[in-house]
Amino acid sequence: MLQAIGLTSTPRRGAPPAVNDLTFEAPPGRVTALLGATGSGKTAALRLMLELDAGRGVAYFRGRPLHRIAHPAREVGVLLGDVPGHPSRTARGQLRMLCAAAGVPAARADEVLEAVGLAGLGDQRLGTLSVGMDRRLGLACALLGDPHTLVLDEPADGLSPRENSWLYGLLRAHAAQGGTVLYASGDPKEAARNADHVVTIDAGRLVADQGVADFARTRLRPRVVVRTPHAARLAAVVGREARAAQRSVEVVEEASGRLAVYGSNCAEIGDIAYRHSVPLHQLADEVGDTGTAALPEAERAAQPTRGAHGGRPAPGSGGARQAPAAPAAHGVRRALAVHGPRRASDVALSELPPPIRVRPARGPLRPLRYELRRSLGVRTTAAIMAAVLLTSAALSVLLARTDGTALPRLLAAWPELLPLPPAALGAGLLGALSFGDEFRYPALAAGRGTVPRRLGLLLAKLLVTASFALLLAGLAVGCDAQALRLVYGPELIRIPENSLALGASWAGLAVGCAWAGLLAAGVFRVAGAGIAAVLAVPVLVVPLVQKVFEAPSARSVAGLPGRLRELAWWQLPQEADRWVLAVAQVVAQPVGAALALSLSVLICAYLFTGLRGKVRW
Predict the structure, then answer these.
(1) Is 331 helix (H, G, I), strand (E, B) or coil?
(2) What is the mean pLDDT of residues 367-379?
(3) Which of 201, 393, 417, 441 sits a CA distance of 20 to 30 A from 186?
(4) Under a CB-based contact definition with an 8 Å cutoff, are residues 276 and 230 in contact?
(5) Of 152, 66, 100, which Cα lies nearest the Cα of 375?
(6) Would you call 612 helix, strand, or coil by DSSP?
(7) Is 178 helix (H, G, I), strand (E, B) or coil?
């Protein structure tokens, strides 16, 4: 059972709310259509139910609002528009990534692909899918958690008649198994063909809540469609003969010489046109939509008696069948029944429908597996690493042509003209894309335009990007060494004495750049900000740090490991002294200090923005 009670969107300045006190229910085992013209508030109502937009009211999914459901993907399947996935990701990769987010086995991806008819297209890229295939994939994403309720917004938009038949057959099969299906549509004929229950809205208000038989009887009427170059003349003679025969025939003139005749049939209209020598270009029977104005007054619920605060219909008022009162709205109904509509403004604010808050999106249930599938599911990661390795090897060979370049710079391919070596820039780019792609292709929170700021997701991204950065740094040094050995011979490569400290510095530089790009993209919600933060470290922060270190030091840090051992409550091994000194030397370098300072600022900014947007519930 899906119950929507008192849904009211937050109005824009000087405009009425898109959804105004909308109450209805979608029973289980039936397909319910939320019908309305463009701009009637269908999508806004669905977004309020899914807590994607702020407003008032409540939506219950089998007795619980969405934010009270531990695993929403296993209760509600959602399809709002196109699939928000990276164009180069495969359909199977997209589903497996979402399986990790929903906490279901990866084998579920192949099951839903087969259920929606895409079993043979699992390796096709999302960017190459047609509209029909994209809709099938979107439905597969909604079915991943085997939900009880499906909420779909215009699922048949852009589909062929054959794909329409398949889609609604699948929805009916889901409802036949006891599930609840609610979909928004703007076509009354399609709603009459495929739905069991039709909820009609107009200007954000409930117009009618009907079974499909009552809806077809009150909303749809048979008519004859005629196209002729003499439309006005044919309309006149049809009306004249209908008056002479005392028959109720209505003729409506439409654009481009088209007439709609109600209360007649093709044979009669054809005979009239033949007798009066009126040529016909089209003559056909069809079912026409009479609009919401044609609904009988007893079927309408758009203007019930209401309180001053926009509450529920007063008892005894006419209207279509309303949804049963859920506990959150019971206080409003009881107050209106006791005090009447004139006293409704005295109802306490606590008895009004509860506010709908836009809560932060939930993080993936298996964040590490999700992040690995997200990173490795596209060719961007491999392409960046390959480009970095080729560039690094070429720069290293060019630098070795001239004397005076130290071996560490040769192996890192770091000329003086570049602010950072290619490996560090590549690591920063991978980190920036880790969060940047989340905002560009919001698979975790479709429709929210945001990414969940969960600690588990952040730690998973930090771990995966650090692993990629270390791998890229190691491969770059190895490729550069092999390139130098191949071009100039083995005598150029000699292991330096301080290789441990150099390796730690190199690893710290790569990981620091990756984390700087990751955190900056997470704070500013765009990958470009992450790349800018990585470049800002050597360009802006390092000069500031160098000014600090240029001042002569009057104190020495000699003996730091021993003093740290005295402060620690456990005894550090003697070998730890070298590691402590190595870390201190790395941090004492201008680049290391600049990276540490930048990471500290970015972590604080990330935590601040995350706590600021957190909603307590």
Answers:
(1) helix
(2) 94
(3) 441
(4) no
(5) 100
(6) helix
(7) coil
The tokens describing 195, both together, are: 């739905």
Instruction: Please enumerate, as own/partner, the contacts of 250-259 that have beta carbons within 8 Å and a separation of 24 or more.
Output: 256/227, 257/227, 257/228, 257/229, 257/230, 257/231, 257/281, 258/225, 258/226, 258/227, 258/231, 258/282, 259/225, 259/226, 259/227, 259/228, 259/231, 259/234, 259/235
pLDDT in tens, 103-119: 999 999 999 999 999 98
> What DSSP letter does each residue of 543-576 carry, written as one string?
HHHHHHHHSPP----TTHHHHHHHHSSSPPPTTH
- pLDDT band of residue 353 (cuts 50, 70, 90) is confident
| pTM reported for the whole predicted model | 0.77
Helix or strand (DSSP H, E) at 11: none
| First and final C-alpha spacing in the chain | 23
HSE, CB side, 13 Å, CA atoms: give it for residue 407: 15
Predicted confidence (pLDDT) at residue 412 exceeds the cutoff of 50: yes
- pLDDT of 348 above 50: no
Contact 376, 79 (CB under 8 A): no
Q: What is the mean pLDDT of residues 339-353?
A: 45
Residue 58: pLDDT over 90: yes
Chain centroid to CA 474: how far?
A: 36
CA atoms within 13 A on the CB side of 359: 17
d(CA 170, CA 3): 23
434's enclosing H/E stretch is helix 422-440
CA distances (Å), origin 230, targets 223, 226, 237, 239, 258: 19, 11, 11, 14, 9
Phi, psi of 56 (to 5 degrees): -130, 160
The 3-state secondary structure of 277-312, one letter per residue: CCCCCEEEEEEEECCHHHCCHHHCCCCCCCCCCCCC
Q: Are the beta carbons of 457 and 575 closer than 8 angstroms?
A: no
pLDDT at 341: 38
Q: How far apart are CA 43 and CA 447, in angstroms?
A: 11
pLDDT tens-digit map of 536-588 = 888 888 777 667 666 565 565 566 556 656 665 555 565 555 555 555 555 55
DSSP-based three-state secondary structure for 135: helix
Q: What is the pLDDT of residue 13?
A: 80
Token pair listed for 350: 């606590």
Task: Count Cβ neighbours within 10 Å for each residue of 375-401 and write b for 16 or more, e otherwise.
Answer: bebbebbeebbeebbebbbebbbebbe
Question: Which segment of 209-218, 413-422, 594-603 scores lowest on mean pLDDT?
Answer: 594-603
Provide DSSP, 455-510.
HHHHHHHHHHHHHHHHHHHHHHHHHHHHHHHHHH-GGG----TTHHHHHHHHHHHH
- How would DSSP label each residue in 186-219? S-HHHHHHH-SEEEEEETTEEEEEEEHHHHHHHH
The SS3 of residue 140 is helix
**Alpha-carbon distance 137 to 155, whole Å?**
11
DSSP β-bridge partners for residue 252:
260
- The answer to whether 411 touches 481, Cβ cutoff 8 Å, is yes
Residue 275, class by beta-carbon neighbours within 10 Å (0-12 exposed, 13-18 middle, 19+ buried)? exposed
Angle between helices 455-488 and 380-399 (to 10 degrees): 40
